[in-house]
């Protein structure tokens, strides 16, 4: 019976977890994660003790109690994990804990019930008088460097593969194994949906087949996207004749109109609709080609994140004119097609009338300046940290390129950061030099005249120092 009860509780909890809504999910660590963290901590402790003689570990509860007791964190508030610097705060607190202080905190924590409730019944002396203020000042000097591994162009290599039959060289040596390398692209080349191309009023337009249901068509005006006039008119007539509201009418079966004037023709299950594509890619040729060239290919849309790099150029300096960027967006699809060809020209050498200045990619750090890049040289880190961002995504807007950026200290997922900005009435298109926006989406004009890039205009060292280039 006891086993059956445990099994029932297990499956009941599992089913309940699967039914949770997004806003009901507990973001705290699970017991499994806590156990894994404890095992990793024990192994890390033994490893560090082999290098450093004085190493000891303490639990997260003790660190939390120390933060509250030393005035670094209020006792009635939860730990703020929306900011990456909370790791630095913990590191400073742990560094300030010596064996004597740790022993006192541990004894008080286990013996006093009030301490477990966070009431701070025991007054523990600060490591020094201005400890809370010094911690806040120190973390406000931190510039968070995000290191991103760029593996999109990393090629596959093997030490060697066995030949089907040995090969004898001219010098008498016999080779049975040879080194091997593949042609590798790491990442999505394009989205999975296939698109077609038609010509209407002299312009080429892209279409895609979609199920005709309430998921794709949520209101009556959505039917205007349907390509075929006969299908569209048949659907509109049946919906209007039903006498029901649109949502209810969409539950019925729709058919084509026959010569008798009745809707007893083939069932309409899928329809072609118009769609907008920023970067249509010709993936492959149709099996049966048409006389019209634009119909002979399968088209697909560039996958999110497949525009993995941007080559930046600048026109030669002309006295009295502003420096402006020219860019070339590098997609995985184009790079995969071109880089093995004999006539492949590196992007650094492609533009003869422009000066190549470097590449930027998601993960590249960037600094904003207001009037002149030189103003950043004299700013302290406490001011630089308000202007430091990380590029997260490229967005092609017609012929222009928009940058999506995230503040270097922002640790929340994109949706929650956007909600916080909405509550604080922040705009993602406006750069603030006093209260930094958590997320930014800026136009080409903004980053041409107000942005410096890591690896091009400055060096961001591993220890968090910024060295500006001349």
Structure description:
27% of the residues lie in helices and 23% in strands. The protein is an alpha+beta fold and 470 residues long. The protein has a 5-stranded antiparallel sheet. Strands 3-4-5 form a 3-stranded antiparallel sheet, with no helix packed on it. A hairpin with a 2-residue loop joins strand 12 (388-397) and strand 13. The protein starts with a helix and ends with a strand.
Strand portion: 15-25%
* End-to-end distance: 77 Å
Strand order of the largest sheet: 14-13-12-11-15
The overall pLDDT average reads: 84
State the helicity in percent bands: 25-40%
Individual helix count: 13
Q: Which structural class matches the secondary elements? A: alpha+beta
CA-based gyration radius: 31 Å
Shape: extended
Number of strands: 17
Helix and strand element order: HHHHHHHEEEEHHEEEEEHEEHEEHEHEEE
Biggest sheet layout: 5 strands, antiparallel
Query: Could you list the spans in which at least 5 consecutive residues all have pLDDT below 50?
Result: none
Question: Which helices and strands appear, and what pairs or packs with what?
Answer:
Elements: H1 2-18, H2 31-49, H3 60-69, H4 86-96, H5 99-111, H6 113-116, H7 131-139, E1 157-168, E2 174-181, E3 196-200, E4 203-211, H8 229-242, H9 246-249, E5 270-275, E6 280-285, E7 297-301, E8 307-314, E9 325-331, H10 332-338, E10 355-360, E11 365-368, H11 381-384, E12 388-397, E13 400-407, H12 414-423, E14 439-442, H13 444-450, E15 451-453, E16 458-460, E17 466-468
Antiparallel strand pairs: 1-2, 3-4, 4-5, 6-7, 8-9, 8-10, 11-12, 11-15, 12-13, 13-14, 16-17
């Amino acid at each position: 019976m006891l086993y059956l009860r445990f099994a029932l509780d297990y499956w009941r909890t599992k089913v309940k977890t699967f039914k949770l809504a997004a806003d009901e999910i507990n973001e705290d660590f699970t017991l499994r994660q806590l156990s894994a963290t404890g095992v990793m901590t024990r192994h890390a402790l033994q490893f560090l003790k082999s290098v450093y003689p004085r190493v000891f570990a303490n639990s997260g509860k003790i660190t939390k109690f120390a933060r509250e007791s030393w005035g670094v964190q209020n006792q009635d508030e939860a730990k703020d994990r929306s900011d990456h610097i909370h790791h630095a705060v913990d590191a400073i607190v742990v560094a300030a804990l010596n064996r004597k202080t740790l022993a006192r905190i541990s004894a008080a924590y286990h013996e006093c019930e009030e301490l477990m409730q966070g009431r701070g019944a025991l007054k523990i002396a600060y490591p020094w008088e201005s400890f809370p203020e010094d911690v806040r000042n120190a973390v406000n000097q931190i510039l968070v460097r995000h290191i991103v591994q760029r593996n999109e162009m990393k090629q596959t290599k093997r030490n060697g593969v066995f030949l089907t039959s040995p090969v004898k060289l001219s010098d008498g040596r016999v080779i049975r194994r040879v080194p091997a390398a593949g042609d590798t692209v790491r990442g999505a080349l394009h989205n999975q949906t296939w698109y077609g191309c038609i010509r209407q009023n002299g312009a080429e337009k892209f279409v895609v087949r979609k199920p005709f249901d309430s998921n794709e068509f949520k209101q009556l005006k959505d039917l205007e996207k349907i390509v075929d006039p006969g299908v569209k008119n048949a659907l509109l007539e049946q919906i209007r004749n039903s006498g029901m509201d649109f949502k209810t009418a969409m539950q019925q079966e729709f058919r084509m109109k026959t010569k008798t004037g009745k809707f007893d023709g083939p069932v309409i299950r899928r329809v072609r609709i118009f769609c907008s594509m920023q970067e249509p890619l010709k993936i492959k040729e149709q099996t049966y080609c048409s006389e019209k060239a634009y119909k002979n290919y399968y088209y697909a849309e560039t996958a999110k994140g497949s525009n993995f790099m941007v080559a930046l150029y600048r026109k030669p300096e002309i006295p009295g004119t502003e420096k402006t960027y020219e860019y070339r967006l590098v997609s995985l699809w184009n790079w995969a097609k071109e880089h093995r060809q004999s006539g492949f020209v590196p992007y650094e050498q492609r533009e003869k009338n422009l000066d190549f200045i470097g590449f930027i990619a998601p993960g590249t750090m960037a600094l904003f300046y207001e009037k002149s890049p030189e103003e950043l040289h004299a700013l302290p880190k406490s001011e630089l940290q308000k202007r430091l961002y990380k590029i997260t995504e490229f967005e092609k807007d017609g012929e222009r390129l928009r940058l999506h950026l995230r503040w270097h200290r922002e640790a929340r997922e994109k949706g929650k950061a956007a909600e916080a900005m909405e509550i604080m009435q922040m705009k993602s298109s406006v750069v603030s030099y006093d209260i930094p926006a958590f997320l930014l989406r800026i136009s080409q004009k903004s980053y041409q005249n107000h942005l410096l890039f890591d690896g091009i205009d400055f060096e961001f060292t591993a220890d968090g120092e910024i060295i500006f280039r001349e």
